[in-house]
Amino acid sequence: MTSAQTHTENGAQTDGKPVAHGADNGHLHKYGMVIDLDKCTGCGACMVACMSENNVPFRDDETDKLTSITWMRVYKLTNGKPYPDNDVCYLPRPCQHCEGHAGHSPCVSVCPATATDYSTETGIVSQIYTRCFGCRYCMAACPYHARYFNWWDPVWPDGMEKYLSPNVSPRMRGVVEKCNFCFQRYQLAKDKVYVDGESTVSEEAYQTACTQACPAGAITFGDLNNPEHLVHQLAQPDDHHHGHPRNPNAFRLLERLGTNTKVYYVSSREWVRRAGDNYLPDEQTGGGGH
Amino acid sequence: MSTVDEQAKVPDSPAGAETGAPPAEAADESSGSFIFLFFIIGFFAAAILGWVVFPKVLYSTQYQPIDFSHAEHVEMVDEGCESCHYLREDGSFSGVPTLAECIDCHEEINGDSEDERIFYEEYVAKDREVPWLVYSRQPDCVFFSHAAHIVGAEMECATCHGDIGESDSLKPYQENRITGYSRDIWGYNIAGFKRNTWDRMKMDDCSDCHQEAGGVAHSSSVQTQRGACFVCHK
Prior knowledge:
Chain A is an alpha+beta fold. Chain A has a single domain, classed as Alpha-Beta Plaits (2-Layer Sandwich), CATH 3.30.70.20. In chain A, 20% of the residues lie in helices and 15% in strands. Chain A is built from eight helices and twelve strands. Chain A has helices at 2-10, 45-53, 106-110, 137-141, 183-196, 209-213, 230-235, 270-274; strands spanning 31-36, 73-78, 88-93, 116-118, 125-127, 148-149, 176-177, 219-223, 237-238, 244-245, 250-251, 263-266. In chain A, the strands form five sheets. Chain A has a four-stranded mixed β-sheet with strand order 8-1-12-11. In chain A, strand 4 and strand 5 (125-127) form a beta hairpin. Chain B is mainly alpha-helical. Chain B is 43% helix and 3% strand. Chain B has ten helices and two strands; from the N terminus they run H-H-H-E-H-H-H-H-H-E-H-H. Chain B has helices at residues 2-9, 14-19, 21-58, 70-76, 99-103, 114-124, 146-152, 157-161, 183-186, 203-212; strands spanning 59-62, 173-176. A two-stranded antiparallel sheet of chain B has the order 1-2. Classes of the chains: A alpha+beta, B mainly alpha. At the A-B interface, helix 1 and helix 5 of A face helix 7 of B.
């Protein structure tokens, strides 16, 4: 184990003790996303990249959105006004990775199988397919329709199974799946951190597939706990108010539910920010952060 | 059982017992021992079926394409296990060497062993990868990081893999016919007893160590207050 010893000697946080299982030991990440809706053109590259990265199954007929699976889904919003005031906005919707209060996100708190879980190390809401028995309680609990049920075993066209990612386990019939912020990429990035003897996963070492695929650069991904990461600077989350964005143009979907999501949206248009929650006609936009 | 009742009555009516009971008692006694005999036969039949026959039926035995000697190779290389099974620069683990890595030394036949001749003629000459059967292959949903265990926790290979590095020949590979997993995952002891850390490698065996170890990765789950699922699963 010569190389193993060399690496730990170089390791930043060893201090003579064995590294207690963590290149990232002591670092509490809160991975999150900021999506600039003014930049999004609705091209759908993020959806394609996501399906390809995560071995998401598809069917011959993908028009039935009740049965199709889209971890990342682009919604089209309009302001409902006639020409010339008509305006359109595209809103990509991954899993929002709600933190809720102390990690009790809507889906995690209802799962009877401990198949979905919130990690305080990464802030990612996980989904373990082999543990899920398909009751779909989490789907009912999720306010964002981010969870999908596998009504069939996946069938890929001949030869396409050779293109599947070996780092992502394909799902079977009868289980729920959802976006996991490309967690396999975090696992691989952590492996590299061990070998390089670094102390933590860097911003560029762990990026989701949708972030990298977006041609407009609308999606930013990183650690919301780290002020050096771009997501932190864009959203300016206020930790004393459950991560409520201090950026006046930033908002979160259905913020007043208290889901405390980690996906922030940014738009300079007021009607877009207003579309992120259900407001009474005379109510002021924003005003979450309870 | 009637035998017990009959015997209980004996002190009350010794006369009756002498006249009518003996033939009936003899018949009951023999049927009782028959029942006991059948119980014993059934017990042993079920035990043999469950403990000997079932494991044999459940696992299919396959043999490695080449009888590789780890002991012989370890003597010749400089860096022990890491000479052939190493961590790549990107943090991933090389696992079983590819044919190209074997050819680095085996461009020609070096010795006079039969297995090396087969290896050369069947694989090197034909440029075919050796279809090794991997004893330690985990199910698809498992993410195992060699980097975290070798570098991070400074564990020895033998803690999980046993003394395979000192073996002269490869043991037969047993595959579970239902799951397709290697028997080394469940372990060879069908009762589930294990003496060594490497006897089996199910999730419980991973968590044996993980529960003892501290750190964020082992208490990050909100549901269980233990290690989060997304540390070892994918």
